């Protein structure tokens, strides 16, 4: 089956979660031209954020139009909304000592920030999850370009690269993504200000996989950890103006 996915989702307190989920599914399906496709949203929660766990326990409640059900495996939830069933997959974002960001897809536990990037990647891999070296503005440039180059050359086949909607159109494809040795995932990377949930699902991937309803997390992990799995990027990255507006609003939020 084909699964449409945004692999870089943040749910911040400033966001309306129901609106984010509804919009993300609509945008992914529109981007793929598949109005009834199955969709998944991969959370990448930073230090101190526990939205997945709070949805799981009911500490965060969605509107009556959205119901949350556990999946047969821990590490994922099903959100039922408007006749749709969307898979919400747990995951973390970890800041390495080298100031690059590692995403841990399909990981429920929270690793510590500040470890060496190579050690984080190894730990995520050892947990059976999917380590992703995430692009973001400035994080792969200057002194950190050497870090990225070293990681992509020495991490073996376990590492994925993560493209972002913030890499605006016209921004050159980073060399590690251009060499096609490592799989490239994509996501919208919503920022922590009200309204940026409207970006969710604007950029993502179509994953062709064997999906077992009884083991959804295992199915996704197996597919993403197999470098022969067909993965195609869908959707659109920001225009330069959209990127600039988002970054300005992000800075305003941080300074307020």
Helix and strand topology:
Elements: E1 2-9, H1 17-32, E2 38-43, H2 51-57, E3 66-70, E4 76-81, E5 84-89, E6 91-95, E7 101-105, H3 117-126, E8 130-134, H4 143-154, E9 160-164, H5 175-178, E10 184-187, E11 203-208, H6 216-225, E12 231-235, H7 240-255
Parallel strand pairs: 1-2, 2-5, 8-9, 9-10
Antiparallel strand pairs: 1-11, 3-4, 4-5, 6-7, 7-8, 11-12
Low-confidence stretches: none
Estimated radius of gyration: 17 Å
| Major β-sheet strand ordering | 3-4-5-2-1-11-12
The H-level CATH homologous superfamily, spelled out, is Metal-dependent hydrolases
Assembly state (oligomeric): single chain
Question: What is the fold-level CATH name, i.e. the topology?
Answer: TIM Barrel
What does this structure look like?
The protein has 256 residues and is α/β, with parallel strands linked by helices. It has one domain: Metal-dependent hydrolases (TIM Barrel), CATH 3.20.20. It is built from seven helices and twelve strands.
Give a concise summary.
By secondary structure, the chain is an alpha/beta fold. It has seven helices and twelve strands. α4 (143-154) links the parallel β8 and β9 (160-164).
Keywords:
256 residues, alpha/beta, TIM Barrel, seven-stranded mixed sheet, 7 helices, 12 strands
């Amino acid at each position: 089956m084909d699964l449409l996915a945004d692999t870089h989702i943040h749910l911040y307190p400033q966001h309306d979660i129901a609106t984010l989920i509804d919009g993300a599914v609509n945008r992914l399906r529109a981007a793929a031209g598949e109005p009834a496709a199955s969709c998944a949203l991969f959370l990448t929660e930073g230090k101190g954020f526990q939205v997945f766990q709070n949805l799981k326990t009911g500490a965060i409640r969605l509107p009556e139009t959205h119901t949350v059900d556990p999946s047969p495996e821990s590490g994922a939830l099903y959100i039922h909304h408007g006749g749709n069933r969307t898979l919400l997959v747990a995951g973390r974002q970890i800041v390495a000592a080298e100031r690059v960001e590692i995403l841990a897809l399909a990981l429920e536990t929270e690793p510590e920030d500040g470890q060496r990037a190579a050690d984080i990647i190894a730990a995520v891999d050892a947990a059976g999850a999917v380590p992703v070296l995430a692009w973001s503005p400035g994080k792969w440039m200057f002194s950190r370009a050497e870090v990225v180059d070293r990681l992509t050359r020495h991490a073996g086949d376990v590492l994925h690269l993560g493209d972002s909607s913030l890499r605006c159109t016209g921004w050159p494809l980073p060399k590690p993504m251009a060499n096609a040795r490592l799989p490239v995932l994509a996501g919208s990377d919503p920022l922590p200000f009200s309204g940026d949930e409207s970006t969710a699902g604007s950029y993502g991937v179509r994953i062709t996989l064997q999906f077992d309803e009884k083991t959804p997390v295992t199915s996704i992990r197996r597919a993403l950890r197999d470098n022969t799995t067909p993965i195609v990027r869908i959707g659109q990255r920001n225009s330069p103006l959209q990127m600039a507006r988002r970054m300005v609003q992000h800075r305003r939020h941080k300074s307020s």
